[in-house]
Amino acid sequence: MTLDNQESRQTREGVETSTGKLVSTEPQPVSEDEVTLVDLWIVLIKRKVLIGAVVVASLLSGIVFFVLPRPNPQQQYEFSTIIEIGQKPDGDTAALVDSSETVLAKLQNAYIPLARKELNNREETERLSAPAVQVHMLGRTVVLKTVGSSPDSGPHLELLESVSQHLLTDHRLLVEWYLTRENIELERARLRLEDLKNPKIFEVAEKDLENQISRASSELEELGDRESLINAKIERIGDQERLVRAQIAELEKTITQGVENRVQAVSQSNNPSKAMTLFLIDSDLQRSQTRFALLQERLEINLRTQEDELSKSLEDIFREQRQGQMSIEQFKRQLEKIRFDGARGQADQEQVVNDLEARLRGFRETRVVLPPMQSLAPAVAVATITLVATLSIAGFLGIALGIFAAFGAEFIANARKKMSENGLGQN
């Protein structure tokens, strides 16, 4: 075997690797039946006219189906009622007797299920299931809606009426509770106002203060009398002082004259008659000096002591008068305060009563603004949704049928081509 034959044999049979395995080196032929995504996309682009035609035909079919009358058509109507939630005073503003969240929770979780159950349990409903209720909260108003056909209006209206009555009953009890509480507060405030208007309430305190003022005034009058008496005593002491000073001055003259007479009598003491005169002069002089000492003691000690005592008593009287006057002023202020507090308390309590009465007038019960009724025209929103749904379904089906038709047409074209190549289609 030649080298060329060996190389050609290795080329045809493959190359033996170091592990002993034979690896083929011949190129693998590509199968004609394999389909790639590019081939699919090419087919869709190629048959786009067919796909578009099928989609348009499907949409037209959907519109025709929607427009053409169908057997036993039933137009849908809206059944609605509007409820206005009651109000209660809240400071200077008004608040709902129930918050919006509470109202929605009660309707959705209690009253609507209860009303539907009651409607389903009634025999005259002829086994019609209770319709669903839509709830919309707009400020103070609640809108309840159902959708159904006109022949079935009875259950819809009964359901809305039942839900409304459940909510109204609940809020009526709630408002009555609020009113009861406010009426109790108002009755207490009125009783308090009557007590404040009763003059006997402050009469005891006023009478006590008036008696204290009267007693203090009497004490001031007594102190004034004592002051006048002490002032009179002080004036008499002044008179006594002037009298004693006059007596002292007179005694001084007498003593001076007696001293002069004694000097003369001493000079003539040899005469027995003059000796007797000297004795008498000494006696008179001694008496005068003794009286002079007594008058000096009375002037400098006794009268000064009496005057000091009277001055001290007068100061005590002045102090007691000031205290008494201050007490009287304090009692008068307390009396004015009691009267002012009584008038102000009465005015404040009247304001409290007026505020409570205004609060009572501010309560509003929940009421039905618009009773349950059927809409005059059919529900347009339902028809629009039906048309959109019909067109959506028709478009989806059209696209699916168009793609199927495109691949079917391509398959038929390829089959005819192969048959013509093989000579099968010449017969």
Question: Outline of this structure?
Answer:
The protein has 427 residues and is α+β, with helices and mostly antiparallel strands. It is 72% helix and 10% strand.
Could you explain how this protein is built, in words?
There is one protein chain. It is built from eight helices and eight strands; from the N terminus they run H-E-E-H-H-E-E-E-H-E-E-H-H-H-E-H. With 427 residues, the protein is of the alpha+beta class. A four-stranded antiparallel β-sheet has the order 6-7-3-8, covered by helices on one side. A hairpin with a 2-residue loop joins strand 4 and strand 5. The chain is rod-shaped, with a radius of gyration of 66 Å.
Overview features:
427 residues; alpha+beta; 4-stranded antiparallel sheet; 8 helices; 72% helix; disordered N terminus
Mean pLDDT: 80
* Count of separate DSSP helical elements: 8
Beta-strand percentage range: 5-15%
Gyration radius, in Å? 66 Å
Order of helical and strand elements = HEEHHEEEHEEHHHEH
Helix/strand class: alpha+beta
The main pleated sheet reads as: 4 strands, antiparallel
What level of helicity do the residues show? over 70%
Low-confidence regions: 1-31
Globular, elongated, flat, extended or rod-shaped: what is the shape? rod-shaped
Distance between the termini: 53 Å
By DSSP, the count of extended strands is: 8
